[in-house]
Amino acid sequence: MMSDHQQARQHAPEIPLRGEDDPSADAVDYLVHHLTSYRYAKPVSRNYGRAHVEPRATPYQRVLSHEVVVDPVPTRLTAHTDFYGNSSTYLLVDGPHSQLDVHSHARVTVSERRYPAEAMSRPWEQCGPDHWGPLLPAESIDFVHPSPRIPDQGEAHEISASVFTPERPIGDCLADLTGWIHANFTYDSGATTVTSTLEEVLAERHGVCQDFAHVGVAAVRAAGLAARYVSGYLRTAPSSEGALVTEPADEMIGSAASHAWLSVLVPGIGWVDIDPTNRTFVDQRFVTTAWGRDYADVPPLKGIVVGPPGATSTLNVAVGVVPVAPGAPGTL
Questions:
Q1: Which pLDDT band, with edges at 50, 70 and 90, does 256 fall under?
Q2: Cα–Cα distance, 294 to 82 (Å, whole number)
Q3: Who's near 236: CB < 8 A, 6+ residues apart?
Q4: How far apart are CA 126 and CA 181, in angstroms?
Q5: CA neighbor of 236 nearest in space, from 228, 245, 226
Q6: What's the rounded mean pLDDT across residues 313-319?
Q7: Residue 172: enclosing H or E segment and its boundaries?
Q8: In which element (H, E) is residue 67 found?
Q9: Where is this region: Disordered (predicted)?
């Protein structure tokens, strides 16, 4: 009988390498709509919020347009860029209201990701800070160390040691880690919350994309490499009415809401993104919004509500990421 690790290696995703004769895939244009909707049992008097919902420019992604629309009309709506280059939107709704709808509309172009074989064949030991060179931003060192939601954890070191074996190519390590988490953790939307700890997730081995990204980041950092938590979206299937989408495309887990994965720094390439939830290297089906040390740096929406004692609320989130022809008009 194969061990869990042997099974994971057997199901590790293919590394997207750059071949001399391989034609590049065309870039994909997406219309993106993210709706966060609160309904309050009793009217509240004030809402403060900060949203990380604007797609960001990357070597593989261009942001053509973006707009945040809030209902009720906010007293204040301002943009902010943080230490890691993420754009967030601050909102204040001042006055009695029974609902809060935050819409994010964007149009992005996402390019193919393929990596040079030589760099992906580099032994993982040569991917730590001592091998970065002088051109990488100083903040990259933040992603080597433990963070508030991803503390140094013993079981993460055990996972790391089983994947990052001596002199192994970094590409194989990342593929193996992706397959290992996918094979050994069960996706269960009811098993955890946004406050669940890494220790709890490692013990129960159930969770969602946020949890699996945290596990991956912890394992990479345990090897002394840089890994960051990435938030964004997955491509969804268009509906006939053009409304927000609830049916996933290509059986991708997490495509009807915000998604999360991790990114690892590889000298000679830059950041390489992997998605353990869907057992894949990140490709043109993914739209990136923000990254940080862990979830706490870039939640889609957080804030404070001022209202009567005991007031309750219901939350609904809907996401549409629909491909469109380049230059074609349209909004979701």
A1: confident
A2: 14
A3: 245, 247, 248, 249, 255, 256, 319, 320, 321, 322
A4: 24
A5: 245
A6: 93
A7: helix 170-184
A8: strand 61-71
A9: 1-23
Strands (E), 21-139: 28-51, 61-71, 76-81, 87-110
Cβ neighbours for 162, distance < 8 A, ≥ 6 positions apart: 5, 180
Q: Is 187 exposed, middle or buried (0-12, 13-18, 19+ CB in 10 A)?
A: middle
> Tokens representing 325?
């022809």
Phi/psi for 175 (5° steps) reads -65, -40
CATH tag, 28-109+300-324: 2.60.40.2250
Pairing of β 206-207 and β 186-187: parallel
Say how far apart CA 93 and CA 270 lie, in whole Å.
40
**Domains in the chain: boundaries:** 4-19+113-297, 28-109+300-324
276: its two tokens: 């353990």
Find tokens 């919902």 and name the residue: 53
Buried b / exposed e along 247-265 (16+ C-beta atoms within 10 A): eebeebbbbbbbbbbbbbb
CATH class of 4-19+113-297: alpha beta
Block residue for tokens 């580099």: 122
- Residue 227 has phi, psi (to 5 degrees) of -140, 140
Give the total residue count for the chain: 332
Q: Taking the CA atoms of 125, 157, 215 and 189 in sequence, report the sign of the dihedral they define.
A: positive
Most distant CA pair in the chain, distance: 66
- One fold for both 4-19+113-297 and 28-109+300-324? no
Q: Position of tokens 């980041």? A: 217
- Separation between Cα atoms, residue 263 and residue 285, nearest integer Å: 16
Instruction: Retrieve residue 225's tokens.
Output: 């490499």
pTM of the model: 0.92
Tokens of 13: 């995703």
Per-residue pLDDT tens over the stretch 278-293: 999 999 999 999 999 9
Q: What is the DSSP letter of 26?
A: P
- What is the reported pLDDT for 6? 57
